[in-house]
């Protein structure tokens, strides 16, 4: 399969690229500042340029998407607008604007996060955008049924990300184990699903 991974240079994206390439798929990488292609998820024209440049695809995986952390009283208008433009509309537009490039029978796999369903203090914008991504994928899958599949992977706290913050890696999920959920979404048959990924996938 020829698969575009947006966010391929990130902690999760790099592991997803490895997992997909390890299974013999051709991966085209895109990032904000590195990768085969550059894209700004918050800019719809940039997404159009990306699709024009990459050529035909069978699947798209998005492991990019930024939303702002902060207590509700501290989040200003710009923080909400930026979170919606990047993590939500960026992923929505990857699907909407990718339909002409991704072959029928192909798929889109988006990323939310477990904070969407189990928020903690200071996550109002992050939880809101993640939950909206999941709802979008669930509803879009209905409209696209029989033509394209759309799923969301909802990662728990990634062990490598915890370590970068000086925390114990556990409780967390290693990026390589998390990547298996993305492989399942791309190569499986489900659509409209939110794959909660806090523990390694049972084989
Ligand atoms: N890590 C965790 O513990 C965790 C847990 C739950 C959910 N998530 C979610 O998973 C996603 C990826 O997390 P991560 O930890 O892998 O992030 P990361 O290591 O910071 O990587 C982010 C990736 O997204 C790209 N990117 C950043 N801004 C972009 C933009 N405007 N347009 C296009 N690409 C952009 C980056 O490209 P450059 O490197 O070129 O800038 C990079 O490839 C995020 O949505 C995050 O909220 C992460």
Describe this structure in words.
The chain is of the alpha/beta class. The chain has one domain: NAD(P)-binding Rossmann-like Domain (Rossmann fold). The chain has six helices and seven strands, in the order E-H-E-E-H-E-H-E-H-E-H-H-E. It has helices at 11-22, 44-54, 77-96, 124-143, 159-164, 175-187; strands spanning 2-6, 26-31, 37-38, 57-62, 102-111, 149-155, 194-197. A seven-stranded parallel β-sheet has the order 3-2-1-4-5-6-7, with helices on both faces. Helix 1 (11-22) crosses helix 6 and helix 3 (77-96) packs parallel to helix 4. It is globular. The two termini are 22 Å apart. NADP nicotinamide-adenine-dinucleotide phosphate binds at residues 6-13, 31-34, 39-42, 63-66, 86-87, 111, 113, 155, 157-158, 161.
Output the CATH class name.
Answer: Alpha Beta
Largest sheet: 7 strands, parallel
Q: Give every kind of bound small molecule, once each.
A: NADP nicotinamide-adenine-dinucleotide phosphate
Mean pLDDT across all amino acids: 97
Q: How many distinct folded domains?
A: 1
Structural class: alpha/beta
The total beta strand count reads 7
Order of helices and strands: EHEEHEHEHEHHE
Alpha carbon gyration radius: 16 Å
Strand composition percent:
15-25%
**CATH hierarchy: architecture:** 3-Layer(aba) Sandwich
| Strand order, largest beta sheet | 3-2-1-4-5-6-7
CATH topology: Rossmann fold
The backbone outline, from C-alpha atoms, is: globular
Query: How many angstroms does the end-to-end distance come to?
Result: 22 Å
Model regions low in confidence, pLDDT < 50 over at least 5 residues: none
Give the helix proportion (percent range).
Answer: 40-55%
Counting H and I runs of at least 4 residues, what is the number of helices? 6
Fourth CATH level, the homologous superfamily: NAD(P)-binding Rossmann-like Domain
């Amino acid at each position: 399969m020829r698969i575009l991974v947006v966010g391929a240079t990130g902690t999760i994206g790099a592991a997803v690229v490895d997992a997909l390439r390890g299974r013999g798929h051709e991966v085209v990488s895109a990032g904000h500042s590195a990768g085969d292609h550059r894209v700004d998820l918050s800019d719809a024209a940039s997404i159009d340029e990306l699709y024009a440049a990459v050529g035909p695809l069978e699947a798209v995986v998005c492991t990019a998407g930024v939303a702002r952390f902060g207590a509700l009283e501290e989040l200003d208008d710009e923080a909400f607008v930026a979170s919606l433009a990047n993590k939500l509309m960026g992923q929505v537009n990857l699907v909407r604007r990718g339909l002409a490039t991704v072959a029928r029978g192909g798929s889109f796999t988006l990323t939310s996060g477990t904070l969407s369903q189990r928020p903690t203090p200071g996550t109002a914008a992050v939880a809101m955008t993640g939950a909206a991504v999941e709802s979008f994928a669930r509803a879009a899958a209905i409209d696209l049924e029989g033509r394209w599949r759309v799923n969301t992977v909802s990662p728990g706290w990634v062990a490598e990300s915890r370590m970068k913050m000086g925390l114990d890696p556990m409780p967390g999920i290693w990026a390589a184990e998390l990547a298996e959920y993305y492989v399942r979404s791309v190569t499986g048959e489900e659509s409209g699903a939110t794959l909660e990924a806090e523990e390694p996938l049972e084989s």
